[in-house]
Amino acid sequence: MMKYISAFLLIFILFSCGEDDVVEEKEEIVIETRDDLIEVVNGIFTEYHPGTDRKKIKFQGPQDENKQRHGIWYFYNLNNIQVSMTEYNHGIKNGVTMVKYDTGVIRYTGEYKDNEQIGIWKTYDSTGVLLNEKDFGNLL
After folding, report:
1. Model pTM?
2. How far apart are CA 75 and CA 59, in angstroms?
3. Residue 134 · residue 120 · CB < 8 Å
4. 32-135: which CATH topology?
5. Residue 87 and residue 71 in contact, taking contact as beta carbons nearer than 8 Å
């Protein structure tokens, strides 16, 4: 008899819980578009890392009147360490560039003229020791 009562109570409990009784919390999903991550103020373009509430800069640099990179542009990792710097002239790489490891140690340095590598480029290991130099010529 006890088995029947237990079975009846179990079935009663299972069927008495309708779908309306189930409370499900849904997490709001926010999808950031590239436009959400970009701002331009006084000719300075800034793009933020996604998921950081616009607190961590990814790229930053000045633009010309045609919205082309113009001047020195910087790239930062998620730890806000500057990991590259490149100079532009109306959207074209012209001038020095420096790329760093995520630790901030220089990885390589060089120079561009009209988007072409020129001069001597130096490469370093993760501790800052010079590994090699390559001469691309064309310094004129």
Report:
1. 0.73
2. 5
3. yes
4. Outer Surface Protein A; domain 3 (3.90.930)
5. yes
